[in-house]
């Protein structure tokens, strides 16, 4: 089948898509966007989190056909050209990136949290990121990064 | 042919030398989603490889029929053991692991056949068309029996014992005033790195193959792969791609040989990516263990003896089992002065999943046992548990259980004092309770009734680098040249960046030693000398040492060239800020001028000082080159009605010799502690009758951000005079000491014996 989807603001088309393919597979293997990661491919780790029509979703659990005509924003679409989003900047600066495999999914989840709440509390951050596994960091620096990003965004919008 | 997506040269505009915390040079690529991990590699006409695995833990293979699979449209090759052109066997320590099973399978998930197809789903479907005839056999699953029962079938020609090691020190039959004993068990933990086993093999025009992959040790993979392919080493070239975590789980081969076999057979690039379930079958795990311990002490609390018997279940193949037995026995009494000891360790073959390297290799198991014993002993003596540990702590000048004199700082007592003296979290009863903070969290399972609090300690000693006489070394190539008018250093090693931050460290060393702000890191590959493995907490020590040596050699040539040009002695010259300066600080020349168009390049190795094998009878010997030490204190809340545990606080003090990158050190301690927490309360591959019951992230639980408590961390820097920059390996100790601290805290809260980790709700509720 053919799948039409808007990815990071750009209309994209994938041909010869097998019905069983996930949105994650289409993004990674057909559209050349490997940023969303394939860690568990069963919705448990959050590494493939993308915005689907503005709502975070595990791309591995979305059938390719379900994405037809919809809008997807991936980690590759967070930055404005060369300018990183404050969430991305904060993850680098706070040392929240080690192997980095969980990072793309965490960035989308954290980006969404800050968009929704502005300046989330510790407990809110923990609840919001509980679906994103990280095996390297022990999460402390990720918490730092999200708080830092929220503060930075608040400053920019002031 | 190069892959369309491939490993990147890391050029950066970051500054920062040794002792500072510069940012990772790969950080921006990673947050942009542009960093090429091994599962991201891509080639225009690539095929997808897949593996058929045994459903049985133990069976004879009486026939394999691949015709139907090969007939599936889109399938390009189906291979069995008969198609392995070289030796159908590999292994890290012993050559006992088949590339593809021939006449017998020894564990559930053992690879039997491989194929390549146009689409991963075609590959998966075609696997079902391969017909394997099995004669199912009774699996051997009890490691203690495997060690002693000679009537059991032999899984390997020499029997079911991989290694036995005995350590006898002082009077093995010594007696003591106070004696405590216990039998401890530890479940099978998984590395659970997030990036799945994956890579891309590309056939080359010379009949060889180029393999881009995630691994911990390129050269050892290269050797094993070349041997199986029947190719000379130089025709099997490996390049490291992005690695999504490792923790020991990438030391053994997974898809390396298989992808190359398929690429060479089909003449096309072949990508292999395991899914999560396959990943659980495709790599080795931490050895489960059963440990019998007896501690004797004087009435004042001085350790008199330790006697222990340790059984490590290595599963189907040897992998790192010999090393686990070596580490497990030599570290079996912990960081304590023990004058008399009798220790025995067995590592065995069974039909359980193969076990090998995981963070804390061989030290995790005994630390859980002896730290449990230390608390039991403290209770028997009526002593404070921290005080008992401090009283018996080894220190510089101590002699350990293998007779080795500790000729470097060993601030064990200070580490315990430091975690003991950290402030405790506020008493839950005295503050208002947010139920999200209680055991069970937002599930609202309790409002605090039946919740009890406990505090526990865990202290460990871990050997750093490879041991028992191995020549453990690394190689670094450093090139200094002028690019765009600026002096630039390039560091090239084969050392694997697996997430720990080695690429940052290599830059820090080159910036410091060569006094240049711009340093690039070349992708790690096999075109430069061996760097050894990214394991055993050794890369900062060993590859760091090699990078320093290469930098010093480059600097020496710079000084010689400058001396000739300037007509003065090279004596006292130094490199700083892109300049050559004299000992009094006078600027002698710009580095760029001295270099001109002529680059200077040097390759150097670093070898740590020799270690020695253990005496087979007495287990005495200077087996280890260095030790790392850490101490944890855990505070837990336990819901005794539902058996739920909330770790409230987890504090750590660790000696790192020299904090080369302080932020990265903290991150290692935080991440390592999380893995130790996982082993204490949730992480276990559950195996029944040799079969894995939970090969998924749904059923194998790793800590989330809700499970990790805040941590206070105290980093000591007691330089090791024998190590480059005084460093002490950092990565493993925090994983090891976190587990017993939490287990001891749960015991302190509940008064239960809890002789097994992970501690499950039913262990607490007794249901």
Automatic annotation (TrEMBL), chain A:
The 2Fe-2S ferredoxin-type domain covers which part of the protein? 1-78
**Database matches in InterPro entries:** 2Fe-2S-bd, 2Fe-2S-bd_dom_sf, 2Fe-2S_ferredoxin-like_sf, 2Fe-2S_ferredoxin-type, 2Fe2S_fd_BS, Beta-grasp_dom_sf, Diverse_Oxidoreductases
Give the matching PROSITE patterns: 2FE2S_FER_1, 2FE2S_FER_2
* Protein name according to UniProt: (2Fe-2S)-binding protein
Q: Which domain of life is it from?
A: Bacteria
Q: Name one Pfam family in it.
A: Fer2_2
Instruction: State the organism of origin.
Output: Amycolatopsis albispora
Keyword annotations for this protein, in alphabetical order, are:
2Fe-2S, Iron, Iron-sulfur, Metal-binding, Oxidoreductase
Q: Which GO terms describe its molecular function?
A: 2 iron, 2 sulfur cluster binding; metal ion binding; oxidoreductase activity
Automatic annotation (TrEMBL), chain B:
Show the GO MF annotations: iron ion binding; oxidoreductase activity
Origin: domain of life: Bacteria
Task: Give residue spans, biased composition: Basic and acidic residues.
Answer: 422-437
Q: Which regions are flagged for Polar residues bias?
A: 1-12
Pfam families in the record, alphabetically? Ald_Xan_dh_C (PF01315), MoCoBD_1 (PF02738), MoCoBD_2 (PF20256)
Query: According to the UniProt record, where is the region Disordered?
Result: 1-22, 422-449
Where the record annotates domain Aldehyde oxidase/xanthine dehydrogenase a/b hammerhead, the positions are 32-138
The cross-references to InterPro entries, in alphabetical order and at most eight, read: Ald_Oxase/Xan_DH_a/b, Ald_Oxase/Xan_DH_a/b_sf, Ald_Oxase/xanthine_DH-like, AldOxase/xan_DH_MoCoBD1, AldOxase/xan_DH_MoCoBD2, AldOxase/xan_DH_Mopterin-bd_sf, Xanthine_dehydrogenase_dsu
NCBIfam families documented for this protein: pucD
This one is known as: Xanthine dehydrogenase subunit D
- The organism named in the record is Amycolatopsis albispora
Q: What is the lineage of its organism?
A: Bacteria, Bacillati, Actinomycetota, Actinomycetes, Pseudonocardiales
């Amino acid at each position: 089948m053919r799948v039409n989807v808007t990815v990071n603001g750009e209309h994209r088309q994938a041909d010869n898509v097998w019905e069983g393919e996930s949105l994650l597979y289409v993004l990674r293997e057909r559209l050349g966007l490997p940023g969303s990661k394939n860690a568990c491919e069963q919705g448990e780790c959050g590494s493939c989190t993308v915005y689907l029509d503005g709502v975070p979703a595990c791309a591995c659990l979305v059938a390719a056909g379900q994405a037809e005509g919809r809008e997807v924003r991936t980690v590759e679409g967070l930055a404005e050209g060369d300018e990183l989003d404050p969430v991305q900047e904060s993850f680098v600066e706070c040392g929240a990136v080690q192997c980095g495999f969980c990072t793309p999914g965490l960035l989308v989840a954290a980006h969404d949290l800050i968009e929704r709440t502005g300046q989330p509390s510790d407990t809110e951050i923990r609840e919001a990121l509980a679906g994103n596994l990280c095996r390297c960091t022990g999460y402390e620096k990720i918490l730092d990064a999200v708080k830092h990003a929220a503060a930075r965004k608040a400053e920019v919008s002031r | 042919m190069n892959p369309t997506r491939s490993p990147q040269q890391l050029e950066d505009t970051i500054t920062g030398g040794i002792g500072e915390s510069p940012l990772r040079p790969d950080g921006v690529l990673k947050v942009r989603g542009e960093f090429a991990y091994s599962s991201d590699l891509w080639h225009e006409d690539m095929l997808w490889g897949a593996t058929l695995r045994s459903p049985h833990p133990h069976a004879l293979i009486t026939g394999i029929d691949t015709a139907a699979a090969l007939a599936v449209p889109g399938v390009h090759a189906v291979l069995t053991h008969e198609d392995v052109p070289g030796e159908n066997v590999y292994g890290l320590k012993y050559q006992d692991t088949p590339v593809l099973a021939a006449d017998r399978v020894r564990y559930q998930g053992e690879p039997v056949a491989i194929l390549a197809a146009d689409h991963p789903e075609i590959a998966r479907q075609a696997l079902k068309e391969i017909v394997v005839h099995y004669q199912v056999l009774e699996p051997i699953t009890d490691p203690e029996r495997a060690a002693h029962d000679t009537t059991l079938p032999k899984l390997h020609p020499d029997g079911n014992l991989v290694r036995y090691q005995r350590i006898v020190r002082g009077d093995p039959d010594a007696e003591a005033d106070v004696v405590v004993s216990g039998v401890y068990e530890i479940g099978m933990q998984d590395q659970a790195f997030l990036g799945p086993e994956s890579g891309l093999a590309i056939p080359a025009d010379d009949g060889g193959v180029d393999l881009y992959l995630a691994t911990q040790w390129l050269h050892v993979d290269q050797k094993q792969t070349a041997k199986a392919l029947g190719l000379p080493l130089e025709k099997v070239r490996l390049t490291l791609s992005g690695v999504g975590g490792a923790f020991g789980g990438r030391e053994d081969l997974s898809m390396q040989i298989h992808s190359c076999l398929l690429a060479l057979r089909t003449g096309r690039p072949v990508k292999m990516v395991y899914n999560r379930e396959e990943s659980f079958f495709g790599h080795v795990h931490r050895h489960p263990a059963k440990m019998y311990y007896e501690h004797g002490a004087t009435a004042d609390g001085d350790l008199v003896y330790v006697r222990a018997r340790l059984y490590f279940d290595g599963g189907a193949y040897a992998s790192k089992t010999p090393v686990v037995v070596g580490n497990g026995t030599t570290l079996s009494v912990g960081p304590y002065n023990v004058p008399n000891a009798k220790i025995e360790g067995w590592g065995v073959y069974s039909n359980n999943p193969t076990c090998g390297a995981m963070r804390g290799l061989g030290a995790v198991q005994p630390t859980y046992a002896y730290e449990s014993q230390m608390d039991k002993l403290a209770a028997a003596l009526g002593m404070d548990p921290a005080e008992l540990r401090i009283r018996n702590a080894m220190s510089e000048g101590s002699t350990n259980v293998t007779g080795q004199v500790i000729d470097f700082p060993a601030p064990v007592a200070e580490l315990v004092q430091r975690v003991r003296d950290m402030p405790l979290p506020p008493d839950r009863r005295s503050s208002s309770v947010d139920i999200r903070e209680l055991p069970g969290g937002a599930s609202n399972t309790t409002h605090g009734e039946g919740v009890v609090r406990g505090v526990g300690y865990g202290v460990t000693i871990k050997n750093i680098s490879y041991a028992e006489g191995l020549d453990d070394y690394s190689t670094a190539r450093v090139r200094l040249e002028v690019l765009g008018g600026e002096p630039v250093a390039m560091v090239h090693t084969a050392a694997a960046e697996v997430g720990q931050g080695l690429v940052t460290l290599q830059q820090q060393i080159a910036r410091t030693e060569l006094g240049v702000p711009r340093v690039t890191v070349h992708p790690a590959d096999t075109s430069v000398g061996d760097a050894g493995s990214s394991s055993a907490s050794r890369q900062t020590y060993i590859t760091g040492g090699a990078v320093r040596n290469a930098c010093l050699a480059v600097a020496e040539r710079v000084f010689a060239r400058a001396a000739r040009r300037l007509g003065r002695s090279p004596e006292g010259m130094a490199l700083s800020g892109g300049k050559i300066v004299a000992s009094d600080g006078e600027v002698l020349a710009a580095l760029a001028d001295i270099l001109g168009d002529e680059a200077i390049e040097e390759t150097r190795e670093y070898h740590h000082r020799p270690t020695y094998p253990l005496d087979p009878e007495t287990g005495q010997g200077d087996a280890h080159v260095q030790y790392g030490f850490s101490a944890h204190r855990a505070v837990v809340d336990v819901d005794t009605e539902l058996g739920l545990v909330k770790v409230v606080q987890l504090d750590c003090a660790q000696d790192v010799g020299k904090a080369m990158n302080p932020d990265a050190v903290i991150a290692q301690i935080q991440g390592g502690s999380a893995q130790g927490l996982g082993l204490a309360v949730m992480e276990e591959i559950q195996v029944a009758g040799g079969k894995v019951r939970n090969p998924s992230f749904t059923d194998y639980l790793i800590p989330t951000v809700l499970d990790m408590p805040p941590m206070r961390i105290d980093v000591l820097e007691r330089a090791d005079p024998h190590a480059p920059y005084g460093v002490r390996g950092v990565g493993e100790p925090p994983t090891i000491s976190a587990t017993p601290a939490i287990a001891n805290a749960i015991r302190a809260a509940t008064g239960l014996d809890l002789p097994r980790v992970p501690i499950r709700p039913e262990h607490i509720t007794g249901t």
